Amino acid sequence: MPLRIYLTGRVLVEDSGTILFDERRLMGRQGRLAFAHLVGEHLRAVSRDELAEELWLDTVPPSWERSLSALISKLRTLLASASIPDVALDGSFGRYQLYLPADAWIDVEAASEAIDRAKSALREDIPREAWGWAQVAYQISRRPFLMGEEGPWVTLKRSELRDVLVRTHECLSEPSI
Fold first, then answer.
1. Taking 90 as the threshold, does the pLDDT of residue 121 lie above it?
2. What is the pairing mode between strands 4-6 and 105-106?
3. How many whole angstroms separate alpha carbon 61 and alpha carbon 30?
4. Which pLDDT score is estimated for 136?
5. What is the pTM for the complete model shown?
6. Contacts of 2 (CB under 8 A, 6+ apart)
7. To 10 degrees, what angle do helices 48-56 and 64-81 make?
């Protein structure tokens, strides 16, 4: 079973059915938000400025660079203590990137993939398969995303999940399902 990361509902990381850590170990709201942002953007490097904008919104403190470095250091320590193979949090040239195993499963990505598969199955007239994939997309996209948080990236991700949910309802309302 691959590494599983949940960003909807309660943020948590699971490997082979064992919870490695959840949001309670993520150093408060900023740790939770930074971790979620790095997971959600794991395919690219995220600039320090982008993270700062998300963590502090309009009131970036004068010592934000030191605070962000400390937060990233704590995240690295947490990831190291979880002993997750092929996971690394790299920082260079003013950017951070979270490297995950190729087969890592991230719920928000899985929801998008599932609704795409459901729509494809409908086009191919395979209603049972469409229903199954639509259920996966529905169960994930209906859950709250980083409840209590605000910011441009959080708003974008919520919008993407809302789109998945709308597409899921459209799929499930098809007469052939």
1. yes
2. parallel
3. 14
4. 98
5. 0.94
6. 101, 103, 104, 105
7. 100
Residue carrying the six token digits 């938000």: 33
Structure tokens at 42: 């794991």
Pairing of strands 18-22, 12-15: antiparallel
Q: 89: how many CB neighbours lie within 10 A of its CB?
A: 19
For residue 32, what are the contacts with CB-CB under 8 A and spacing of at least 6?
11, 23, 26, 146, 149
Q: In angstroms, rounded to a whole number, what is the distance separating the alpha carbons of residues 161 and 142?
A: 8
What residues contact 145, with CB distance under 8 A and at least 6 apart?
7, 8, 108, 154, 157, 158, 161
Single-letter residue type at 14: E
The token pair that represents 71 in the structure block: 């937060």
For residue 1, pLDDT over 80 is answered with no
- CA 52 and chain centroid, separation: 18
Would you give the distance in Å from CA 24 to the centre of its chain?
Answer: 16
